Amino acid sequence: MTFDRRTFLTGAACAAAVASLPAAVRAAAPPQRIVVNALGGLGDPNLPDDTLVPQLTPRVLAEARASGLTAVNVTLGYVAGGEDPFQASVRDIAATDALVRAHAADVLKVLTAADIRRAHADGRIGLIYGFQNGAMLGDDLERIDIFTDLGVRVFQLTYNPANQLGDGAMAPGNRGLSPFGREVVARLNERRAMVDLSHSGERTCLEAARLSSAPVSINHTGCRAIADLPRNKTDAELRLVAERGGLVGIYFMPFLDLSGHARAEHVVAHLEHAVKTCGEDHVGIGTDGTVSQIDDMVAYRDTLAREIAARRAAGISAAGERPDTYPFVLDLRGPDQFHTLARLLQAKGWSEARIDKVLGLNFLRFAGTVWGA
Known about the structure:
This protein is an alpha/beta fold. The chain is built from 12 helices and 9 strands. It has helices at residues 5-10, 58-67, 85-102, 113-122, 142-149, 179-190, 202-211, 235-243, 264-278, 297-314, 337-347, 352-371, and strands at 36-40, 71-75, 107-109, 125-131, 152-156, 194-196, 217-221, 247-250, 283-285. Strands 1, 2, 3, 4, 5 and 6 form a 6-stranded parallel beta sheet that branches. The chain has a 3-stranded parallel beta sheet with strand order 7-8-9. The radius of gyration is 19 Å and the shape is globular.
């Protein structure tokens, strides 16, 4: 079975291509606030694509700047499907490196927290290279050295099913980390790479957080106390990650509400619960989507139904995914999404200092702890 890797992962493709830029996009002035998307993408979901490598079209770059985005953790390499995980991951890194060289005035590769600050000062977008599955490691710890030398800074241990490192959120056994998974966490700590526990099963998450000598993250999730679905994290997981100095990113995904039709109010509710549970210094955002939005929602419904069917057939779908559940929040789309969220949080009485932390400064602090300042 062959899959479109970008749409298979994010559900963010539409059959129709866009011929021109939107009529009105904000002027690209250097943003005042640091905004870091702990898991997202730079791409145009209206354009067909079979890779997770960023798409740096004029529209994508203009809208990313207009959104105020400073840096984003972009998923590269193998997530699921029939490709060789190691080869697919090396290929994506090489292709993204070539893009960064070709668009040096627009983007930069993030290796340390200082690179995020540099992107902000320069008015560029920082690209954080990340994985959403540990399958490309095989059973070889030295591959961690290869990938960190190539600039990968975020290693999510599992996707929804189990792999050789541990059980994902949809693995029925909830068996936790494997012996090799424990070795991987230790080596990632040695190499100062970020251990991301998004998509992990509860035992995998708790065991990895306790085992890790460095703070860990859950870069894109929701709160199970609000919506009891496997892709969301329990208060025990959220609290442990925060207590050990880590970061929890709240996503813009359908799992935020049991109806499957998440809206901005649900994002705010999950952020407020995360802050209550973790403290305001340990919460961020990881939208799990792009800034540029789908333009033809009518055509997209057929595309989404095919994607959900493919994910179910491949065994990587999560509970709560249905053909009518959009993999984004309808009223937090496009280049105004972060501005809108900030306004909603202001209306809830959040201080500007707390909003700044959640939209980017908490990730920046956490990254400095793990990668170095």
